[in-house]
Amino acid sequence: MKTPLINRRQFIQILAVTSTGWPLLTNAEKLTLGQDTEKVYKNLSDPWLSLAEVQEHLFPADDNSPGARDIYALRFLRNMLDAPDTDAEEKDFIIQGVGWLNDLSVKNHKDSFIKLSSDNKEKVLRQIESSRAGSRWLSLMMGYLLEALLSDPVYGGNKESKGWLWLEHIPGFPTPTTEQVYFKLGTESNVNTRRRTKA
Questions:
Q1: Rounded to whole angstroms, how far apart are CA atoms 144 and 147?
Q2: How far apart are alpha carbons 159 and 137 in whole angstroms?
Q3: CA-CA distance, 77 to 82, in Å (whole number)?
Q4: What is the pLDDT of residue 182?
Q5: Could you give the CA distance from residue 85 to residue 80 in angstroms, rounded to a whole number?
Q6: Which residue, among 45, 25, 32, 24, has the nearest Cα to 154 in the 3D structure?
Q7: Which end of the chain, N or C, is less surrounded by CB atoms within 10 Å?
């Protein structure tokens, strides 16, 4: 008997239900960390320009679901990379990955990643995925995308709770303010370094 296929929304719902590590939830009225809304995707330069393009390719919008840009995944990524508990090596690894990405794009397709067709972007990412370091880099990118979709908007992603609305999620209460985000709780000395994957 064949197992029925699930769609993207159902897959994300399963992840949301089974995960216990997402930050606390909030209401849409509260301020968010990071750049003002109108500045998030304006005047980007690398590494952020390429990272935004990778996010959009990995998590594009369609008629039924938001994409990376809709949930402000780039602002979330920037906020998390600047958070005091983010491992410095992990941050450097993500930024260095942009160099590898564009080097490979130029080598194979004579142009930077953002200028490639969707098919050629997919080829480059598939080639990156074939190496241990590349697979780790893409895993980190997907991890941050899922967190941007599912975390409280106070952290800068999940703009206007679009991820929750898409998944029909009702957030818990009480919810954090910008002064109650997880990395501001307790003293600075109690902040543990957060690292998503092993080297």
A1: 5
A2: 24
A3: 9
A4: 78
A5: 9
A6: 32
A7: N
